[in-house]
Write a structure and sequence with these properties.
It is built from 5 helices and 38 strands. It is mainly β.
């Protein structure tokens, strides 16, 4: 049994008061009594969930989400077409991975394209759910599953498990005791040479035996007392595992990336994404960085520590050149940029490093200065377009699709792929600014996918806007070390810790299909729930994704026509992968995202396997 802090009564009072405000009547009518009775039963059920493995923060969020998501509508999708797509007549590339999905984005280059075609545009309507694996854990289920030789590997905040990728039968499951913290999330594992690797909330990287789940070694890379965690899915290559520090939104947390020996757990190198400070420990040899340029880009006063640059998603690697591409998050305090003048290198960039040494090669910036919490939030895709361009492409939280020339570093395009509003309006202590994408909008932890047959880049996006009013500068600076450091005025509502989000009745999702050479969109689909899941195109002429309403969609990749859609579970915010198991092509979807941030259906995390 996991250890928990006592369940707070306050967690239960807040949603009930919101409920009564919603009813608009201080005197309980018959409807409110019935709903309150249902709510009381729900609270009892949530107490049982708490005892089975969720922490007090998660239980509090589930109580609130019980009411916030009560009237969530059925999923809808609408399509717009701007210009026709020409499909290549050439044969799809050979499946060099033998039907496996061995890394977070399938390949180290992160294009997410699968050459499998047994499930295709002609027969996708025959899809059905084959089996479901219930993790029995209520948390932000965001894992990106792997499939290696018929075994599907997934993670929760504390567990790593293996199931039969055709039948959902559990092979093994390893639980690691520990605190769940403020954000009980893990985005997946890496695989290399019979070993699995995953990060932890207490700042470790752990290795496990692929066949048995036995822990092989553990390496401490972060001090959890600072607020930093490891939430990203590592990648592994050439005897090394790459992993990073997350939660640069906390005062004093500075981002860094590690290369660790896959066989022993020894730290090979450590590279800071922002200027390393004298009090920061050396956990391994330091990667060579342009330290002088980095230092000059931060003009903080002495009482404002350099903070930010966390990397909380996965990474990309060019195995030919041996270059590692790291998506780097925002500087902090997130909204109060006046206390950290300058461009704040290397936050809000994709950082290209020598994978063997950690040395700086180049960076790909998205903005001169960030005050919106617009991280580079997902692994970039390395693609070669139909026109022969070699691109680094990604779609971060600022709501744009970027294409950079890999050889020169030149930005070729920056095109919006969701709603953009007040992007240049400065925040203040006197006026509230409404902006889109909001602090939890735009592109989240799953990135761009590339379909070479149609020369299309697919981007899933969250249209959800925020409002922010800044705290006085003296109060921002006085924030305690290790505490959340956003910079907005304090609110009695804990849901406003990242700014005040619009009512979720106003949120939406976008799937853009954009020409890889120009960045111009060919067609786009809008859903009434955010799209933050993995997006996967295949040689079968389909593209697949899910939304936070639990709706799963299969579209014709050339024109956006809906071929199959069904509500298959709770909020879909994790991986969507396809592979071969049991002699046939399968699709696995991670569903059941439950979080204080997203007002989604309350359900345990599940792996849902589909086929024909």
């Amino acid at each position: 049994m996991l250890r928990h802090e006592p369940l707070s009564y306050r967690c239960l009072v807040v949603p009930l008061s919101l409920f009564n405000q919603r009813m608009g009547n201080p005197v309980m009518n018959k409807t409110s009594k019935v709903l309150l009775g249902i709510g009381a039963a729900g609270v009892v059920a949530l107490g049982a969930i708490y005892l089975s493995g969720s922490n007090v923060i998660q239980v509090g969020s589930m109580v609130m989400n019980f009411f916030r998501s009560a009237d969530n509508p059925a999923g809808t999708i609408t399509l717009e077409t701007q210009h026709p797509v020409t499909t290549s007549a050439t044969s799809p590339p050979a499946d060099t991975l033998n039907g496996n999905w061995p890394s977070y984005n399938r390949t180290l280059t992160s294009d997410r394209y699968s050459p499998l075609a047994s499930i295709n545009a002609k027969n996708a309507s025959q899809l059905k759910v084959l089996c479901t694996y219930d993790t029995k854990v209520h948390e932000p289920s965001e894992t990106g599953p792997l499939v290696i030789d018929g075994a599907l590997i997934g993670t929760t905040a504390l567990d790593i498990y293996s199931i039969d990728a055709a039948t959902c039968k559990e092979n093994w499951r390893t639980n690691e005791k520990g605190a769940l913290g403020m954000l009980p999330v893990n985005r997946g594992a890496a695989y290399l040479d019979g070993r699995l690797f995953r990060g932890t909330l207490d700042g470790n990287l752990r290795a496990y035996d692929f066949k048995t789940g036995k822990r092989l070694w553990e390496t401490q890379v972060l001090d959890p007392k600072t607020g930093a965690i490891v939430s990203s899915a590592p990648i592994a290559w050439n005897g090394m595992v790459f992993v990073s520090a997350a939660l640069g939104d906390y005062k004093g947390v500075r981002g860094r990336i590690y290369a660790i020996a896959a066989d022993t757990g020894k730290i090979i190198w450590e590279t800071y994404t922002v200027p390393k400070q004298p009090e920061d420990p050396d956990r391994g040899p330091q990667g060579t960085m342009p330290f002088e340029e980095m230092a000059k880009s931060w003009q903080n006063p002495p009482d404002v520590p350099i903070s930010g640059g966390g990397s909380w998603t996965s990474y990309t690697l060019d195995p030919v050149k041996g270059h590692l591409f790291v998506p780097v998050g925002n500087p902090s305090p997130d909204f109060a940029d006046e206390v950290r003048p300058g461009p704040n290198f290397f936050t809000n960039t994709v950082l290209e490093l020598d994978a063997k040494t950690g040395a700086y090669i180049r960076h790909y910036p998205i903005m001169e200065r960030d005050w919106h919490d617009w991280d580079v939030s997902n692994a970039p895709a390395l693609v070669t377009t139909r026109g022969g361009k070699e691109l680094v492409t990604f779609a971060p939280k600022d709501g744009h699709l970027y294409g950079f020339d890999r050889n020169t570093g030149q930005r070729l395009y920056r095109n919006p792929v969701t709603r953009i509003e007040n992007a240049d309006v400065k925040f203040s202590t006197t006026e509230t600014v409404h902006f889109c994408p909001g602090a939890v909008g735009g592109g989240e932890w799953n990135g761009v996918a590339f379909d070479p047959a149609n020369n299309l880049l697919f981007t899933g996006q969250d249209e959800w806007c925020s409002s922010v009013k800044l705290e006085a500068e003296a109060k921002v600076i006085a924030t305690k070390d290790g505490a959340s450091w956003m910079g907005q005025q304090a609110s009695a509502n804990p849901l406003n810790s990242m700014g005040q989000q619009d009512p979720h009745s106003k949120w939406a999702g976008w799937l853009y299909a954009s020409d890889a050479d120009t960045g111009a969109w060919a067609w786009r689909a809008k859903t009434n729930y955010p799209i933050i899941s993995g997006v996967t195109p295949t040689a079968g002429g389909i593209v697949m994704f899910g939304d936070l309403g639990g709706n799963f969609y299969v579209l014709d990749s050339s024109n956006g026509k809906v071929l199959w859609n069904k509500k298959i579970g709770g909020g879909i915010g994790g991986g969507v992968i396809t592979y071969t198991a049991g002699g046939a092509q399968k699709i696995a979807v991670v569903a059941g995202l439950v979080s204080p941030i997203w007002p989604t259906e309350i359900t345990s995390g599940k792996i849902i396997i589909l086929g024909q």
